[in-house]
Specification:
The complex is a heterodimer of chains A (276) and B (295). With 276 residues, chain A is mainly alpha-helical. Chain A is built from 15 helices and no strands. Chain A has two domains: 2-60, no CATH class; 69-236, MetI-like fold, CATH 1.10.3720.10. Chain A has helices at 2-36, 40-45, 58-66, 69-100, 106-117, 121-134, 142-145, 152-163, 167-175, 180-191, 193-209, 212-217, 226-236, 241-261, 263-274. The longest helix of chain A is centred in the N-terminal third of the chain and has 35 residues, at 2-36. Chain A is globular. Chain B is mainly alpha-helical and 295 residues long. Chain B is globular. Classes of the chains: A mainly alpha (276), B mainly alpha (295). The interface between A and B is large, with 92 and 96 residues.
């Protein structure tokens, strides 16, 4: 009886602890949203107040009318969608080739792909910048897409999954007269779906959130992607906390909402790729 | 299977891309670190290892090297320890709903763009109207100038970085803990081991494979953290770096030297040092965390 009571107490404490932790993690989001609905004079005059005295939309209005926010959003979307689609294609087709074909130098080439995963961008950003300049891509969205078309991680992941597909399926299709690319499209791609779903999530997020690369590759205000644009906006309107928080909210909320809708797939995807 | 034509039509463009954007940049990077390279100059003179020699006497570089190491060691240690404890805590919760809620909440900051969350935290750290100082004042404690005081910049950024990144490792540790067959902990419980003993003597050793993955990955990613340093140490009218360079790290210094001052040769020398540091740390952490068994 005493033991049971003790257990209930521990459970209760655990629950309270969990709620406290949840609150602490969510706190910055609350702060951001509440601040974005205050007017800037109110923030300055009443620093101690957490809730807005008067709820206003002036911050959001300023972001949407005084900056090319939709242009920035479109830029981000174009870059992230292009990178994701291209990476899905190159990773799956190369992963398939490395898993199912025999050719000269196969092991050396695969090692090269693995090694490329280890190269940090902060180390190669200067030469990358010079190469992009040479290619005439500076200050264009192409500068953010072209260098990201091949993902070492993606190829590695797809190869792992392709290896689990029995050779006999591909061979049977071949005997029936199917070409290599046809086998890839009709047999391999559908079987890779779970793997490609996680790869798409990672690639999209990484591209959407990237900060350093667009910071060095883009110059015009109109060609910026959201994270850099946000940083630019806040340096332009440094004293206007309400507008800055509204801009941050507009950048943070879409990814957060998408995440909350697809959280099961996200978390499965991480566990799938990380645990291997 | 064999079909060289198919293989090479696909792999040739793939490897051209890889060479141009991954392999070539490393070689070029090493190359220009030996020059006094400035893209705006007519002539760029070969200076041998002078850039590297200059680094040894450069206070900003030495400060950023030290800050980088401190940041990585402290943040990664705290991140790995807490993510493991939280993952274990989550796995002990009975309700399935509560478990997935906890994981989702912790993961939320991971999907947010670092640039945006850094901005939000920067305003929470603000001197007068920031959240932290308001909480301190509420309890009658004096506020701190978090991002303007050279002793507080690093702790402030470390706290933020843990918040922003811990969810990722929690998910991976959770998957690892869930993957451990229940018989092991049950057997230990029957033998009379308490929850702490079970965690340290059964769960932790069996997680070695997960830890071997997490530690090098977390180290590598934290050596490259950039957005929070650039955004949180920047104040109106000054470039990033914090008071007395207390918030300066290697990535930020490479960026500043190369793209603010156009000293690309010198910046490349710093990049080479960063590359060497990351390589050494990766190899050492892979070696020490190697696991040769399975269950």
């Amino acid at each position: 009886m005493v033991k049971k009571k003790k257990n209930v107490l521990i459970r209760l404490l655990g629950l309270l602890f969990a709620l406290a932790v949840i609150f602490a993690v969510v706190l910055p989001y609350l702060w951001m949203l509440l601040t974005s609905f205050k007017s800037t004079p109110e923030i300055m005059k009443n620093p101690g107040k957490i809730l807005p005295i008067k709820w206003v939309l002036s911050g959001y209005e300023k972001v949407l009318t005084k900056s090319p926010f939709f242009q920035w959003f479109t830029n981000s979307l174009v870059v992230s969608v292009s990178v994701t689609l291209i990476v899905l294609f190159t990773s799956s087709v190369a992963g398939y080739i490395f898993a199912k074909y025999n050719f000269r130098l196969k092991n050396v080439l695969f090692w090269l792909i693995l090694a490329s995963m280890m190269v940090p961008f902060s180390v190669t950003m200067i030469p990358n910048f010079l190469i992009i300049n040479e290619l005439g891509l500076y200050d264009s969205l192409g500068s953010l897409v072209v260098p990201m078309m091949i993902s070492g991680f993606g190829i590695f992941l797809c190869r792992q999954f392709c290896e689990d597909i029995p050779n006999s399926i591909c061979e049977a299709a071949r005997i029936d007269g199917a070409g290599d690319f046809y086998i890839y499209v009709t047999i391999i791609l559908p079987l890779l779906r779970p793997c490609l779903a996680s790869l798409a999530i990672f690639t999209f997020l990484e591209s959407w959130n990237e900060y350093l690369m667009p910071l060095i590759m883009l110059e015009k205000v109109d060609s910026m992607t959201l994270p850099v644009a946000l940083s630019f906006f806040s340096s332009q309107h440094g004293n206007d906390l309400s507008a800055t928080m509204a801009a941050a909210a507009l950048v943070m909320l879409p990814v957060t909402i998408v995440f909350l809708i697809f959280q099961k797939q996200f978390i499965k995807g991480i566990a799938l790729t990380g645990g291997k | 299977m064999k079909n060289n034509r198919f293989v090479y039509t696909i792999l040739t463009p793939v490897f051209i891309c890889l060479l141009v954007f991954k392999v070539l940049p490393i070689l070029i990077g090493f190359g220009i670190s030996l020059f006094d390279y400035n893209p705006l100059m007519e002539e760029n003179t070969f200076v041998g290892f002078d850039n590297f020699k200059a680094l040894l006497g450069d206070e900003v570089f030495l400060a950023s090297l030290k800050n980088t190491v401190v940041f990585v060691v402290v943040t990664v240690t705290l991140n790995v320890t807490f993510s493991l404890l939280i993952a274990q805590f989550i796995s002990m919760m009975r309700s399935n709903k509560m478990r997935s809620l906890m994981r989702a909440i912790f993961f939320m900051p991971v999907v947010a763009p670092l640039a945006a969350s850094s901005m939000v935290w920067k305003s929470m750290y603000a001197n007068k109207y920031g959240l932290f100082n308001n909480i301190l004042n509420f309890f009658g404690l004096p506020g701190q100038n978090w991002l303007g005081d050279k002793n507080w910049v690093m702790p402030a950024i470390i706290l933020f970085s843990i918040w922003a990144d811990i969810g990722y490792n929690i998910i991976i540790f959770s998957a690892g803990i869930d993957g451990i067959p229940g018989e092991f902990t049950e057997a230990a419980a029957i033998d009379g081991a308490g929850p702490f003993r079970r965690f340290f003597s059964v769960t932790l050793p069996l997680l070695a494979r997960t830890t071997a993955f997490i530690i090098p990955m977390t180290l590598i990613s934290h050596f490259q953290m950039f957005a929070q340093f650039e955004i949180m140490t920047r104040s109106a009218g000054s470039t990033a770096g914090g008071p007395n360079n207390s918030g300066m790290v290697l990535t930020l210094e490479i960026y500043k030297e190369a793209f603010k001052y156009k000293n690309m040769g010198y910046a490349s020398a710093i990049a080479v040092v960063l590359f060497a540091v990351i390589m050494i740390v990766t190899v050492v952490s892979r070696r020490t965390n190697r696991v040769d068994w399975e269950y």
